[in-house]
From TrEMBL:
This is N-(5'-phosphoribosyl)anthranilate isomerase. CDD domains: PRAI. The keyword Amino-acid biosynthesis applies. Its EC number is 5.3.1.24. Pathway: Amino-acid biosynthesis; L-tryptophan biosynthesis; L-tryptophan from chorismate: step 3/5. HAMAP family: PRAI. Belongs to the TrpF family. It catalyses: N-(5-phospho-beta-D-ribosyl)anthranilate = 1-(2-carboxyphenylamino)-1-deoxy-D-ribulose 5-phosphate. It comes from the Bacteria. One of its GO terms (molecular function) is phosphoribosylanthranilate isomerase activity. It holds the Pfam family PRAI. GO terms for biological process: L-tryptophan biosynthetic process.
Length: 199
C-alpha cells in the first residue's frame, strides 16, 4: 500500500511522516491553506531520504509556472491537479520527474498513463477540502496499476475506502489535520498504520 501525505509545511510533521513510513510527501506550491514557498519546500525536502518521493502540488496555473516552481523547490515529482491537458503533460515530460495526474473521480480518462503520467490520483471534485465521495464507484474499473485514492480519507475511514475501491495507494491531507492546514503528528502516524493494516 503506497501512502502519500499531502500539504506538509513543517519540519516536525515531515519527520513524523518519514518516520511513520510514508512513501511520498506533498508540498502545495499554489494557493491553499497549505501553500509553501519553493524555498520552504526545498528546505523541508532536504531532510527527506531518497526512498521517499517529494512531490510539488500545483493547481490553477500554467505549466510554464509549474515548471519554475517545482524546479525552484528541487522536488522529485510534479502533481498537476485539475484541468491539465495531454499537451501540458507533454510540456513537462523533459523535466525527468515523476508526473502525477490528479483529477476528480468524475473526470474522463480515468486510466493511468492516459496523459503520459506515471501515477494517477483520483480525488474529490474540490481538492484538499476533506470531502468524501462514493469510493465504491471505482471497484471493478480498470484504472491501471499505479493510482492513488484521495478525498476525505481519515484514520477511521481509510480501511473501508481501500476495501471499497481496491485502491493500491492512498493520499490524505485534511484527515491528518487538527485544524485546516495544520498537520497533526499523531493522526499522520495513525493514518499510515491504518492504511498499511488494511492492505
Ligand atoms: O491540499 C490543498 O489545499 C490543495 C490545493 C490545491 C490543489 C491540491 C491540493 N491538495 C491536493 C491533494 O493531493 C490532497 O491531498 C487531496 O486533494 C486530498 O485532500 P483531502 O480531502 O483534504 O484529504
Amino acid at each position: 500500500m503506497f501512502v502519500k501525505i499531502c500539504g506538509l509545511s513543517t519540519p516536525d510533521t515531515v519527520a513524523t511522516a518519514v518516520g511513520a513510513g510514508a512513501d511520498a510527501l506533498g508540498f502545495v506550491l499554489t494557493r491553499s491553506p497549505r501553500q509553501v514557498t519553493p524555498e520552504t519546500a526545498r528546505r523541508l525536502a532536504a531532510a527527506v531520504p531518497p526512498h521517499v518521493l517529494t512531490v510539488g502540488v500545483v493547481a490553477g496555473i500554467g505549466v510554464a509556472e509549474a515548471r519554475e516552481l517545482v524546479q525552484a523547490a528541487g522536488l522529485r515529482a510534479l502533481q498537476l491537479h485539475g484541468a491539465y491537458s495531454r499537451a501540458d503533460f507533454a510540456a513537462v515530460a523533459d523535466l525527468g520527474l515523476t508526473l502525477i495526474r490528479a483529477v476528480s473521480y468524475e473526470a474522463p480518462d480515468l486510466r493511468v498513463g492516459a496523459y503520459g503520467e506515471d501515477l494517477l490520483l483520483v480525488d474529490a471534485t474540490d481538492p484538499g477540502s476533506g470531502g468524501a465521495w462514493d469510493y465504491a464507484t471505482l471497484r471493478g474499473r480498470d484504472l491501471g496499476k499505479d493510482w492513488l485514492l484521495a478525498g476525505g480519507l481519515a484514520v477511521d475511514t481509510v480501511a473501508e475506502a481501500i476495501r471499497q475501491s481496491a485502491a493500491p495507494g492512498v493520499d490524505v491531507s485534511s484527515g491528518v489535520e487538527s485544524s485546516r492546514g495544520v498537520k497533526d503528528s499523531a493522526l499522520i502516524r495513525e493514518f499510515i498504520a491504518a492504511a498499511r493494516q488494511a492492505a
